[in-house]
Write a structure and sequence with these properties.
This is DinB family protein. The protein has a two-stranded antiparallel sheet. By secondary structure, the chain is mostly helical. Helix 1 packs parallel to helix 7 and helix 3 runs antiparallel to helix 7. The protein starts with a helix and ends with a helix. Helix content is about 60%, strand content about 5%. The chain contains seven helices and two strands, in the order ααααααββα.
Length: about 190
Amino acid sequence: MDIFILIQEIKTHLTSGFDKVDEWFDKDEKTLNFQPSNGGWTVHQILEHIYLTNFFLLILIEKGSKKAMRNYLNLDLQSEIENYSFSKENFGRIGEYGAFEWIRPEHMEPQGKLSLSEIRNLITQQYHQCLLYLNTMKNGEGVLCKTTMTVNGLGKINVYEYIYFLSLHAQRHLTQMKNNELETIKN
């Protein structure tokens, strides 16, 4: 496995996803606040949910990043990289809206306490945090720490995979926001 290619692919996915999420902040008020007929969240609420989910995932990513860098002192990084394989197939469904039931914790539900500009600033900061972690672990150190991810039975995943998961989660909600927008147009 070429770890440098993997890191670059995750950066590219992250950048593309965050850029697409950011475009939603410029939508008109009707689109941002439209309540879909299925009783789902408005685009504003979805954006807040993306921020909240990122917030809690970044706590795990930060801890994992620190542990991975500590593990670097005691583990054989080259051996770990040589024995590592990244399976995108295991993660594919994470980015697909409605692909499986996702029961999110209550603390990741939008509360409506943040303005769109606050959410946008926070999500931009989160994007930069992810890039910082990828740059800090630029030589493959992210494979040296695994944490359990229960969503869709992923199991133990490393820090790079957590960042990829975060990016896929946003991608999942891009579809949901597009669905809202299409329904807005029909009404």
